[in-house]
Amino acid sequence: METVNALGRRKAAIARVFVSEGSGKITINKRELSVYFPSPILQYIVKQPLSKLGAGEKYDIKVNLDGGGFKGQAEALRLAIARALVKINPEDKPALKSEGFMTRDPREVERKKPGRPKARKRFQFSKR
Q1: What are the tens digits of pLDDT across the range 75-92?
Q2: Which of 10, 16, 33, 70 could form a disulfide with 26 if both were Cys (CB 3.0 to 4.6 A apart)?
Q3: H/E stretch holding 45
Q4: What's this model's pTM, rounded to 2 decimal places?
Q5: How many degrees, rounded to 5, is the angle at CA 89 between CA 2 and CA 70?
Q6: How would you class 1 by CB atoms within 10 Å of its CB: exposed for 0-12, middle for 13-18, buried for 19 or more?
Q7: CATH code at 4-99
Q8: Cα separation of 85 and 82, whole Å?
């Protein structure tokens, strides 16, 4: 099996993933998964598609992560891994789709409007 690549996005984060056969090693920006995401919750989010398919030890994953915060990066990476796994084996798609791993979360930050402190907040009203 040659290397399969996929892209995942969430908020401002972009994850480019390269999946090849291996021993289950995940490398993010040339760092170990546990070093890049010290939080066990974020590690769990990243590994969700792999654990759903029971393919945790089958593939080596190299990742280029860019932009956003750590939560957005973890969710972008989850989407990218799920997309790569479907490229490898299209029969896995219904299982991943039912868990919601194949859906790009479209929510983005609303822009700040002129004459306002934030996107929707107004300045305090003063009658006098």
Answers
A1: 999 999 999 999 998 998
A2: 33
A3: helix 40-53
A4: 0.89
A5: 80
A6: exposed
A7: 3.30.230.10
A8: 5
